[in-house]
Design goal:
The protein has a two-stranded antiparallel sheet. It is mainly alpha-helical. It is globular, with a radius of gyration of 12 Å. The chain has one domain. It has three helices and two strands.
């Protein structure tokens, strides 16, 4: 298992996520973001708006994913 924080995955807090693969990490992060959205957490809403804007630029989104994947791959397992 690898650990990343919400902040490390373009989020807004220090909540730790634990996953075996990058895709699992992305899904955990997405679910966390949705939970925070439902709670009306403004820092997470702002982070989601930033990500939404990034998603409008396919090249920038690919670069973000490539960087996030390299970060994940560079971390040691727990």
């Amino acid at each position: 298992m690898t650990t990343m924080t919400c902040n490390e995955f373009a989020g807004a807090c220090d909540t730790e996520f634990h996953a075996g693969t990058f895709d699992e990490m992305a899904e955990i992060s997405r679910k966390h973001g949705m939970e925070m959205l439902e709670q009306g957490d403004q820092p997470h809403i702002a982070a989601m708006e930033d990500m939404k804007e990034l998603m409008g630029d396919p090249k920038a989104m690919k670069e973000w994913f490539d960087t996030a994947r390299k970060t994940f791959d560079g971390l040691t397992d727990d």
